[in-house]
Amino acid sequence: MQRLIDGYRRFRAQQWPERRAMFERLAHLGQSPQTMVIACSDSRVDPTMIFNAEPGELFILRNVANLVPPYEPDSAFHATSAALEFAVRVLEVTDLIVMGHAMCGGIGVLLRGAPDPAGDFLVPWMRIAERAKRRVLERASADPQSECEQESVKLSLENLLTFPWIADRVASQRLMLTGSIFDIRSGLLMLLGPDGNFAPVAAQAPGDPPR
Ligand SMILES: [Zn+2]
Fold first, then answer.
1. Cα of 27 from ligand 1 centre, angstroms
2. How far apart are the C-alpha atoms of 114 and 54, rounded to whole Å?
3. Cα(191)–Cα(201) distance, rounded to whole angstroms?
4. What is the Å distance from ligand 1's center to 39 Cα?
5. What's the Cα-to-Cα distance from 203 to each of 45, 184, 187, 188, rounded to whole Å?
6. Is the full-model pTM beyond 0.85?
7. Ligand 1 centre and the CA of 33: distance in Å?
8. What is the pLDDT of residues 147-195, one digit of tens each?
9. Separation between Cα atoms, residue 57 and residue 35, nearest integer Å
10. How far is the CA of 102 from the centre of ligand 1 (A)?
């Protein structure tokens, strides 16, 4: 904890003076992020860092294995669906990104079961991705971990469309859904293309001066 307190003190001394005006503007006007990111809780995958974003830009939900459950408006506690509802219906974000990542422990649970003694919540939560696992195992993949990471992002995108207020906005092009994977080994971000494959984002935009 002391390390975190020290970090906070550095933030107050070094970053807060520079960012104070921005935070005051955000506090006064409220947040109006254009983008929601659904990422894994994994400590190595920080969407704000990966997208080089500022406070106020990204509405982020992180859960185990960046999963979206199907639309189930019942009396259970739906943290992910509540965050989706707020971002889409209240903030009216125009982009929704599901970001998986390499070496995901949640996907490991899906493939190999929960590490002892976890299991009360992890195993039932990962059942959301059971269909992704079946798809991968049916094709006898050489790398089921990576393929499951990719298939579960696709499955989450499919589940997003079971929410009627998401499907409506996607159909009328007010909301765009994107699948992605961040490879923590190489730092590469891959985007899901219309062909169903993930391809790395070019490090430089066309026309940028060479670095
Ligand atoms: Zn993960």
1. 32
2. 35
3. 7
4. 8
5. 18, 15, 10, 8
6. yes
7. 24
8. 999 999 999 999 999 999 999 999 999 999 999 999 999 999 999 999 9
9. 7
10. 8
